[in-house]
Design brief:
Blueprint lengths: L4 E7 L4 E4 L5 E14 L5 E13 H10 L5 E9 L8 E4 L5 E14 L11 E2 L4 E2 L9
Parallel strand pairs: 4-7
Antiparallel strand pairs: 1-3, 1-5, 2-3, 3-4, 5-7, 6-7, 8-9
Length: 139
């Protein structure tokens, strides 16, 4: 069996790198994907979905060095399920509403922004709206 996920979006904040006890680098960052469509009532709906991405080894070091908030990336990897639920990680936001976090273990990360891009708040020019700030995730 095989599963892979491909996402293209913008980083919601600067990546964070740390090392495992065995010395392997791991970099975590969040990616927002945007979608805009018109529903049956004729209203424009703007949707942002957040993914938490983990890159490992040399790729983790490269991501930490070159990516920053607003950078556009393509991530290919596998979804990592929450061991407790078998699905996305579910938690309660600061305002009390339920939230879900999709976790991706990256196999490939491609940088789509040129140098100097990503310094301003990210926008999806085709959809015409800005990426919302990443919510605080308690883990």
């Amino acid at each position: 069996m095989y599963q892979t996920t491909i996402i293209v979006g913008n980083l919601g904040r600067d990546p964070e790198m740390r090392y495992t006890p065995s010395g392997q680098a791991v970099t975590s960052f969040s990616v927002a994907t945007n979608r805009q469509y018109t529903n049956n009532a004729g209203e424009t709906v703007k949707e942002t979905i957040w993914f938490r991405v983990s890159a490992w080894g040399k790729q983790a070091e490269t991501c930490n060095q070159y990516l920053k908030k607003g950078s556009k990336v393509l991530v290919e990897g596998r979804l990592t399920a929450d061991p407790a639920t078998g699905g996305p990680r579910i938690w309660t936001g600061q305002e009390g509403s339920p939230r879900a976090s999709f976790e991706v273990s990256a196999q490939t990360v491609r940088f789509l922004s040129s140098r100097g891009e990503g310094e301003a708040p990210p926008t999806d020019e085709g959809a015409g709206f800005a990426v919302a700030e990443e919510p605080d995730i308690p883990f």
